[in-house]
Write a structure and sequence with these properties.
Blueprint lengths: L1 E6 L7 H9 L3 H9 L3 E3 L2 E2 L11 E6 L14 E5 L4 E4 L17 H8 L9
Antiparallel strand pairs: 1-4, 2-3, 2-4, 5-6
Helix pairs in contact: 1-2
Amino acid sequence: MEEKIVKVAEGGERIDVYLREKIGVSRALIQEWIKEGQVRIEGKQLSPHYRLKAGETIRTSIPPPPPPLQPEPIPLRIIYQDSQVAVIDKPAGLITHPAGRRRKGTLVNALLHYFPDSLSCIG
């Protein structure tokens, strides 16, 4: 895990909003880190709603990025496709994209399988 230390210049802002600007990741991910105890001030666990005070030092233990998404042979009904567009009949209940810890079984995983050359830029 990578540790980041951020010194607060001015207080008043919510910690999740402040860290989003300083670290450059989503508030939802920062809130998850806070709830898991990976974000602390003076060794104390906080809530995502915590309002910062000037002079505080925030310590974060940032987990490594998740592994790249993997193609999966999930059955899809491709209604139309050409070199630029694909029309998919997405089955009900199939999650569209990975979120949080869910990295498998999504439409994106299936699309990576069906269109590997077109979607090679997805991280």
